[in-house]
Input
Amino acid sequence: KKGNVKIIIGASCPLVVKDREIQTPASFIKEFEKHNQVYRNLGNIKSVLIIKSLLDLNRCVNNKKTGIILSVEGLYGNGITISNLKKILACGVSIVAPFWNIDNPLGCGCTTKHDTGLTSRGVKIVKFLEKNNIIIDLAHASKKTFLDVLKISKEPVIVSHTASQEIHKHVRNINTKQVKLLVKRGGLIGLCLVNEFIGDSSI
Output
């Protein structure tokens, strides 16, 4: 409130940290359920509104509430099925980033050593998400996965938090070609001011 922030994207990343290492969970849906409990608690706060539609967005602005758009960052672990995706969408999730930095059965993350792009399973999931009006976030996708998704998607996609390769070379940053493709498709780019993305203190 002090910063006059109106809308927040609340991202759930159902990966687990064990012995200081990031690992995929045994069950995607069980791990997501832990995060969803936090969302439910937030929904009980009178000054907060979980945004599930354009109507909710307008209500948020008109009623001076802080709006939260629910997002899932990374589809990892056993149980990445259409049935389970329907369950998380029913919780009010509006944005899905299928990939985090590491590879999964759907495609490659930005730190991949072998960028083979989107898999046939990934194609199926991307089409399902679009059919259900879910915004696809490619912030952590590899370059080929990024291009593969744009080839099959019909709606604008977003890169929610990144920086420019022209400013600083980093695997999480996007290049000029990607920027132009996003603009052409009516997509959105969110800037991320993490030090290592923008060159630490060298700028």
Summary: The chain has seven helices and nine strands.
